[in-house]
Here is the input.
Amino acid sequence: MKLNNQRVCIYPKDIQRITGKSYRQSTRLMQKIKKDLNKLENEFLTIEEFCTYCGIKYEQVTHLIFG
Here is the structure.
């Protein structure tokens, strides 16, 4: 039986693929989202939180993140 492992958290490289921005701009956007959501620096940002914040449907970004 093959397990389908999917990540829950999003990384700047994923944001770069979704938005077309540079890696550094993606990092800044991620930091801004975490600040606006009152997350600590060491807490992860989930894909769903990113989608909700940016107004993008989850289904639209999954193929960009998971291939």
